[in-house]
Structure formats: structure tokens, C-alpha cells
Amino acid sequence: MNEMLNTLGKNARNAEVLVRNLSANEKNEVLLKVAEALTENADTLTAANALDVENGRKNNMPEALVDRLLLTGDRIQGMAEGLRQVAALEDPVGEVLGMKKRPNGLMIGQKRVPLGVIGIIYEARPNVTADAFALCFKTGNVVILKGGSDAIHSNEAIVKCIREVLQEQGITEDAIQLITDTSRETTAEFMKMNQYVDVLIPRGGRGLIKAVVENSTIPVIETGTGNCHTYVDETADLQMAADIIMNAKTQRVGVCNACESVLVHEKVKDEFLPVLARRLQEKRVEIRADEAACELIPGAVQATEEDWGREYLDYILSLKVVSSVEEAISHINQYNTGHSEAIITNNYEHAQKFLDQVDAAAVYVNASTRFTDGFEFGFGAEIGISTQKLHARGPMGLLALTTTKYIIYGNGQIRP
Amino acid sequence: MNEMLNTLGKNARNAEVLVRNLSANEKNEVLLKVAEALTENADTLTAANALDVENGRKNNMPEALVDRLLLTGDRIQGMAEGLRQVAALEDPVGEVLGMKKRPNGLMIGQKRVPLGVIGIIYEARPNVTADAFALCFKTGNVVILKGGSDAIHSNEAIVKCIREVLQEQGITEDAIQLITDTSRETTAEFMKMNQYVDVLIPRGGRGLIKAVVENSTIPVIETGTGNCHTYVDETADLQMAADIIMNAKTQRVGVCNACESVLVHEKVKDEFLPVLARRLQEKRVEIRADEAACELIPGAVQATEEDWGREYLDYILSLKVVSSVEEAISHINQYNTGHSEAIITNNYEHAQKFLDQVDAAAVYVNASTRFTDGFEFGFGAEIGISTQKLHARGPMGLLALTTTKYIIYGNGQIRP
């Protein structure tokens, strides 16, 4: 292994032992001091960021990406505020779950403990640097960050700031480490450091996540893309259905919990589709529909097979007429990405069937899929939304960054 | 992808939808009928097994492996009894955990659901075939089995028997499928079928598990090797310490929760080691000790650095003298495999420190590590013992074969 990565891994394991056993008070104090330090060093951070932005522009980075890269005074305040919010959350580490006494007198319980060393691979978004540190550190984990090369100066400045606070507080500065060599080879090696890293979390677009899932030998928590559906049942309150679809599609289009596809029961298509289409078209949403729907929607484009599987992240919606709740469920289970799905209905049996049979991280009756979010679910934080089934599914808060170990109190028991 | 695997994957996904929604009663009836069918077809099964055993002997399979491969009438009764036990367990699927009302009126809860399609890769142990089916089916999962080529006839006969029952009961027979092409290439492809398989569980020795972890792109639950330690503190009840070590080392040597290494506090070494050594040597346990311990144990072999990391699975024990509980903890955290670790002590602070700071799936005070087992922990079943930190850690019962999805009841909520 690359000497640099080897050293980094050893440092992380050494730090792990120290960070794992910090009290909530000690961890919160660090988070509050880091919030202060980021604000105090705002000029240094924006200066470092200016280099990244300048390089980005030089390399013709699209303006949307430049905007995500940019650090301003306000955004640095936002990062600091995020750290304070995490400090205010309850520390889940140390709780003992379900301790029971076995017939032989052994007391067996599950204690919530940190995962250990968490690797985070992300793109050119410097705010993720502080955010990922806050969530990992709050849960007693050590973090190794591998950010996008386009944000390298910004990330170095933020990490330096955090490490200085850690040192001042007498806590190992290796609680956070940044991989500054952003070459493909180093990233590939990083994803195979099972010896030093317990979990890898990719945060970013589809391509990044796919690359990590395919190449990592370290267990991955896959945060995911969302081809989210809303199904309008024959018994739906059509006003409610239109309001929910408008919200789920247009309130924010570039997010994973936005609605990408609408299914409508054939019995309500004549009444519903023209109304819905008018409202969507007012917001300049392009509609890609099947034949039955096209007939009712002037200006709709004929959908292709490929459209049913697309996550547009744009002002585009696919739309299909179905003849039953069963057909809706089966279409969704075929094309969805396991993220968020909704039914709009007043039929009890259809609601229960949809909740039971749709295979996704979050399944809604009569609400917008946009609620799939750690803050909206009441976790007070979010490290991402898992679309995999192992370990965590759906919005992940602090709990997703912990594991458990069994603790067993005995008085001399041996196995017969 | 290999055409056979592709078909198999599609069949599994089609079956998934049906199996996921079976009631506990329907599933239990299948398990009881399979138990009956295995007993009724005992002659067919032993005849198929005889071919495997004959081939094994022809290929000079070691007798210990032949014994694991062998099916007898009694062993078939044992398999059937295992199925009946699983039928008697409570079905965890469908439980809704922690439903809460959010300020906006949304009701959000977590529903326990099957994982989906589970792949199991194992060695030439035909009993795993029925056992893995029982646990997966009970939790509403579809299973694809890839057993060792040495047991192919046995596995085919068992799977045929199960599929016949499934068909008779009007349930898709693809709830269980066996990969009969046991070539390396097919196995390698199977481990990359993310599209069709949700989780892969290797069951077998270190080499098999390592190969799956390194080559699978499907999320893996790593079941593991155990380099388990017992630390005898200066305040230990030495009689209890010796009894526990004898149990953990010699009650069954070839298992992952057996004790492989003993650490003894220097203050009790003179009194304890000669007594312990005598008892171990009576049971013909070879002792590989550090210098301090060797001085007190006639016949002990000098341990090498390599010994501290070994899982012997044999009548061999490594032994080291330490000067504090901290040194014991640090030695264990350096060399253990994250399985099971025990301290024998009467000191409150040392017990708490050991429980807090030792990083393993199960940490004991004053008990034998041999209790790390799904049955001993009261789960009524065991699919393996996880030594990874994601999803499940320690003995895995039925719960480890489930995941959750969020179900959300609304009445028209949209996101502001």
C-alpha cells in the first residue's frame, strides 16, 4: 500500500481508541469551538476558496458547480451553525439496549458504540467537510475525508482549522484526516483499506456512488438516487393529488426525493390529467407521457421505455395511466430506485396494499415524497439517504453512524 | 452475464414479490411440510449423499471433511427438527417500530420487512442447505444457494425436496434456487449480481469469507473468525478463571468462540499459571507462552509474534503475562478479530473499562466466550456470527435477515 495511506490509516486507528471514549461533553465542546474557529478564520477560508474557484473557472467548471464550491461569509456562518446544531443533539453512544437475564444468570445487553473509522468520499462541496466531521465526531468516530480535487484548497483550510481546535482541546488531531492526493490511484487504494477503515460513505452524484460500490472492498453505505413515483388512485382527492404532485415535482427539482414519475388510475384520467397538466405547464414542467395520457394533454411528449427509469433532477416528469393499484405497484417495483414512493387514495385496502408491497426506503399515503429527509423525520441531522437495505435504510441521522456490541455480565458461567 | 445466472436472478426477483407478503402461518406450514418431506425422503437423500461421499473419498478428502459431508438418518432427523424449531419462532416481519407523529401531522414509523433476495455461499455441508432455506424463508426472503461442489448431489436432492413442497403448497418454487454450476467463473459472476441479490452471506472458513469480501460488489455480511482472549485480572477469583479458561479452550476446540489466547496479570502469575498449565496439559493443550510465563510452565513453547494473531481451532493456546488491565485491553485490540473477549475480575473499574474499551462483537465479565451463539443468546436460531460492524454484529438470528422501511401516513401534507 501507498506509504501515505498506510500512515494515514495507522493514525486513524490510533486516534480511534481515544475518540471512542470521549464523553458527550468533551465532544460537544470541540464542536462549539470549531464553530467559533471557522467564523474567526472566515477570511483565511474564503481566500483558500478563492484559489479553488479561480481554478474552477479556468477549467471551465459549469456555473452551477462553481456555486456549490463557493464559500462566502454567510455560508461559513451556515457551516458554524450546523456544527452548533449537531452539538445540541443527544449523543446516542453508550446507551444499552434490551439487557436481559438468561436462564443461566448471564445478563446480556447491546451497547451502542461508534463504528470506528469512517471514510467519506465526496465531490467539490466544501461544506460537506465540516458537516461530515461534525456527525462522525459527535458519534465518537474518526473520519478520513477524500474530497473532490476541485475543492482541495478549501478543504485543506477547513481541516487545518478543525485540527488546530482538536489539538488545543488536548484531543488527537487525527480525529480528522484529509487525503490531499486526489489521484485516481490513491482513491482506488483508499477504497480497499479494510484494515484501517470500517465503513465507506460516498456522498455525491450517481457516478461517484457507482464507482465506490463497484470498487470498494470496505463495507459501503450507499446513499442514493431517487426515481420517486406518485400514484393517483381512483378514489383520490384530486385537489390533494395535484397539490402533492406540484410540491413533490417543483418545490425543488434537483433533489433525490423529488417526484420524477406520476401514475394515474384510468378512471380519473379524464378529470385529473388536464388540470394537473395545466398546473405543471405553468411551471414549465415538460411532460413525457404514455399514449393514453398524451391524448388528454396538449403539448405532452411521447414517453419512451427509457423514461420510466429516469431520475431527471429537472423540470421533466414522466406520466402513465394504469388500470389498477396492482399495476401501479408492479410498475413502481420494476422501475424505482428504492427511495420514496407515494399513493394518493381514500381507499383503505389500496393504502395498506401500497404500504405493504412497494419496496422502497419510504412509502407514503397522501403526502409529498419531499419529506424523506433526516430533519423532516426529526433526527436533527442527516448524513445521507440510504437506498440500500443493510444497516440503514432511508434518511440516516446519528444512529446510522453507530453500531452495537454485546456486553455480558456473568458470575462464573461456563457452557455445559 | 452468464445466461443461467441471469435467469436465476430474474426468477428470484419474481419470487421475491410473492414470498415477501406470505403470512407467518403460510410460511410455517411450508417449513413443517419440508421437515416431513425430508424425513420421508431420507433414503433418496442418503443415496444422493453416498455419491458425494464416494467422490470425496476418491479425491482423498480428509476424514474430518467427509464426516461433515455425510448425511445419516439421524442427521436428516436433525435437519427436520431444525426446520420445526424455526417454524416455532416468532415471525419478526411486519412489526412497526416507533411510530411517531411529527408536528405537521405526518405519522412516521419503521416497518420490519424482508431483505429481499439473499445469496448464501458455503462449503460442503449439506445441513446448511435446509437451515439457510428455513431462516431465509421464515423471514420472507428468497434464497439463492451456492454450495460446495463436493456436496452437489446432496444439495440437489435437498433442494428438490423443498421445491416440491413449495409447489404443492401453491407457493413459487423459486423461493429457493441452487446454483449447480460450481465453477470459479460462475461464483465470481454470482458475487457481482447486485441487480438481483440484496445481500450475500458467506458461511465457511477464513478463505471462503475472505474471497467473498474481496470479490463481491453485493453488500456482504461477514461472519467470522475468532481469535478470542480471556484476561485474568489481578483481582480474579482464580478458581473461576481456570474453570472458565478450561471451558472456553477445551469444551469444543474447532469453533470460532473458543478461547485462543490467555492474558494473565503479573501479580497472580506465580500462583495461577502452574495450576492452569497443569489442567491444560491434562487435556493435552499445547501452551505457547511469552518468556515470563514460560519460566513458570514446564513444557511450554516460546510464543512467536505470529502466535498472538492466530486462531488455532485446535488444542493450542497462546499465553502472555501483562502488567495492567490497560496493557491487556491494548493487546486485545491489536490482535483480536472482533469476535468475543472476556475479563475475569472482581474489580469494578477494571470490569467497566474492559467492557467499554475492548472492541469486539461480544465482551464478557466473568463468563466463558463460548456463549457467543444465537441459541445461547436466546434468539432460537443462528445464521452466523457477524464480526463486521454494519447491519449486524455478533450472533445473528432472524432479525439480521430483515431490514426496515419507513411507512408514512399523511392527509395531504406538502413541504413548505
UniProtKB/TrEMBL annotation, chains A, B:
It catalyses: L-glutamate 5-semialdehyde + phosphate + NADP(+) = L-glutamyl 5-phosphate + NADPH + H(+). It comes from the Bacteria. Residues 10-290, 316-378 form the Aldehyde dehydrogenase domain. The keyword Zinc does not apply. Pathway: Amino-acid biosynthesis; L-proline biosynthesis; L-glutamate 5-semialdehyde from L-glutamate: step 2/2. Its main location: cytoplasm. It is found in: Cytoplasm. Its EC number is 1.2.1.41. It holds the Pfam family Aldedh. The keyword Cytoplasm applies. GO terms for molecular function: glutamate-5-semialdehyde dehydrogenase activity. Keywords: Amino-acid biosynthesis, Cytoplasm, NADP, Oxidoreductase, Proline biosynthesis. Catalyzes the NADPH-dependent reduction of L-glutamate 5-phosphate into L-glutamate 5-semialdehyde and phosphate. The product spontaneously undergoes cyclization to form 1-pyrroline-5-carboxylate. HAMAP family: ProA (MF_00412). Belongs to the gamma-glutamyl phosphate reductase family. PANTHER family: DELTA-1-PYRROLINE-5-CARBOXYLATE SYNTHASE, GLUTAMATE SEMIALDEHYDE DEHYDROGENASE. This is Gamma-glutamyl phosphate reductase. It comes from Blautia difficilis.
